Amino acid sequence: MSNLKHYIELTKPRIGLLVIITAYLGYYIGLRNIDSYMIQSAEWVILLHLLLGMFLSCSGACAFNHYFERSIDAKMNRTKNRPLPLGLIKPMHAYLFGMFLFLFSTFYLYFFINSTAAVLSCLTYITYLFVYTPLKQITTLNTLFGSIPGAIPPVAGWVAATGNIESPAWILFGVLVCWQIPHFLAIAIIYSEDYSRGGLKMLPSVYPDNKLTHAHILFFTIALTFVSLGLYVIKYAGIVYAIGAVFLGVLFMYYSVRMIKDSSIQNAKRLFYYSIAYLPILIFLIILS
User: Fold this and answer.
1) Which parts of the chain have pLDDT scores under 50?
2) Is the CA virtual torsion 222, 228, 234, 238 positive or negative?
3) Residue ranges of the alpha helices (H) in 151-229?
4) Theoretical Cys-Cys bridge with 128: which of 149, 167, 225, 233, CB 3.0 to 4.6 Å?
């Protein structure tokens, strides 16, 4: 039972939860786009296959991430108690676990959803493990590249519902890309010393004056507000959604500006916690609309 707990920790279940929520969002609005309302049992079956496949895919990518960054994790306070640095799981076992989840989830999505969903799952692995992960030790641009795999799940959900990719799916992709930047940069400010200890090139660690960090946060917070309004512009969501999205965006900008004026850990945490609240509220507004 103890060993099972450690393997579950490799999968980072909280990230998996975010993946299935955003995948569901893409699936739901994809169905609405083709005038379907999830009243047929076959649509619920596809949804269950989608959520399981995407969750397993994310779990495999996270397990690989533990494997690839085990030496880095051992240097940082926030990660040194993970299973691999503590020697609770052998590295090769973690690698085989990740490989099994990767292969199983890819074929699962291929057979039960479609080939495009399977390709998107593979693209997530490629960008997360072979672009974002190595770039964390090379350039501060890693956060920008890292936002790509995190924004793919709603596109996969849309594809599961419609079989193709259209403008609403790209808008959801853009929303998640823009949301992740201030969210993760707030984390980077909170743990800047820890990231430096691990040799990771995060903006607050490389540039302690935080000017570049602030510029990224402010730009992507403003961009998030405008991109989120894209659903209203293309007449996919109504005025209630538009008003709510603007209100949420203005609050996001408020917390961003507040942190820019005073880059304290406390203000970074306020921005981080608001970013956590922002996404589910926006998702609720989209579904309500």
Assistant:
1) none
2) negative
3) 153-162, 167-190, 192-198, 203-206, 211-228
4) 149
| 3-class DSSP assignment, residue 137 | coil
Q: Tell me, what amino acid is at 202?
A: M
- Size of the chain in residues: 289
Q: What percent of the chain has pLDDT over 70?
A: 99
State the Cα–Cα distance between residues 264 and 235, nearest whole angstrom: 40
* Amino acid identity for residue 62 in this structure: C
CATH number of the domain at 166-289, out of 1.20.140, 3.40.30, 3.30.70, 1.20.120? 1.20.120
Task: Give the whole-angstrom CA distance, residue 262 versus residue 205.
Answer: 17
CA dist., res. 160 & res. 248, Å (int): 29
pTM above 0.90, yes or no: yes
Q: Cα separation of 282 and 120, whole Å?
A: 24
Secondary structure E strands in the chain: none
Domain ranges of the chain: 1-165, 166-289
| Architecture of the CATH domain 1-165 | Orthogonal Bundle (1.10)
Chain-centroid distance of CA 56 in Å reads 15
H, E, C per residue of 44-92: HHHHHHHHHHHHHHHHHHHHHHHHHCHHHHCCCCCCCCCCCCCCCCCHH
In a 10 Å sphere around its CB, with 0-12 CB exposed, 13-18 middle and 19+ buried, how is residue 187 labelled?
buried
